[in-house]
Amino acid sequence: MTDESISAKPHRAAVSRQLPWKTRLYTSLLTAVIDASCRSNGTVNRLLFSLFDVRSSASAKPARGVRTADVTVDSSRNLWFRLFLPSSSSSGAQIPVFVFFHGGGFAFMSPASRAYDDYCRRVCHEVEVAVVSVNYRLSPENRYPSQYEDGLDVLRFLDGGGLATADPTAADLDLSSCFLVGDSAGGNIVHHVARRWAADAGQGGWKSLQLAGMVLIQPYFGGEERTEAEVRLAGAPMVSVERTDWLWRAFLPEGADRDHEAVNVFGPRATGELEAALPEAMLVVGGFDPLQDWQRRYYEGMTTRGKAVRLLEYPDAIHGFYAFPELKQSEALIEEMKAFVEAHRSPPN
């Protein structure tokens, strides 16, 4: 690691002993590449990260039971999404929709990143939903609230019939059974986009798109305080205090701190009541994730404000466990998502 990168400090490894060696290797490599790509001047070495970030192309030819297509929403800001459709769905069958926001600390990855292409393909096939995986703008080139604005604009695009125009084969998507789903930073985006959708819904601002639920997978929340888990799990793969501090500085407006409402959603600067239309949530927490205390505070903040949240805790799970199909918790989460969809989708016609 060079002097242009996040400074490396010796920390105790915080990885579950049960992790397969391939999982350990991937998370270690990704952590190292992210750290090396985060320069001390607040910029990202995109070229360096691209050497690790292997991309997959969309294909109309089904692979593993799923076909894909890339759909442009606004070329001026490179806003697009990758659409994943089950190749086995029967004509006329109404398919629930997952609008998915990838993780990466707001600064890394895309729907074309192989890890996310693989994961969304798997979710599409096993949960039996269409997946709209959003390519939102990245920080630090585009700071708050760019990512939330992009997410809301994708919902407006879907609500306005843009997808049916761009891909007539997607006409059977059930926009009345739309779920916002995201991991890590994507989970943060889910909350803030859902609130914006709900505010508009309270004023009759949507034609056909209805949010049936939110799925926040190890969402990226935080604050100025150092929590017990952040201290105890120092050195964990993917997430550390130094790494998250850098990413928050790259994301937030200049001069803002981590008690900004985008980060500490129920913290000292939180404003306003939660919108009545905000749907039920499923919240996923891992026992080896340094962010777990903030995620539990999110659960408390939502439930004390009268919102229903299904809390799923996986005691042996690292941050990002869901992306590794070889981990038993990953398959368990897929089954939980299937059950959540069935419980909250609109009744099929």
Automatic annotation (TrEMBL):
Alpha/beta hydrolase fold-3 domain sequence ranges: 98-322
Domain of life from the UniProt record: Eukaryota
GO MF annotation list: hydrolase activity
UniProt cross-references to InterPro entries, sorted A to Z: AB_hydrolase_3, AB_hydrolase_fold, Carboxylest/Gibb_receptor
Pfam family, one: Abhydrolase_3
PANTHER family listed in its UniProt record: ALPHA_BETA HYDROLASE FOLD-3 DOMAIN-CONTAINING PROTEIN, ARYLACETAMIDE DEACETYLASE
Name recorded for this polypeptide: Carboxylesterase 18
Provenance organism: Canna indica (Indian-shot)
Lineage, top ranks: Eukaryota, Viridiplantae, Streptophyta, Embryophyta, Tracheophyta
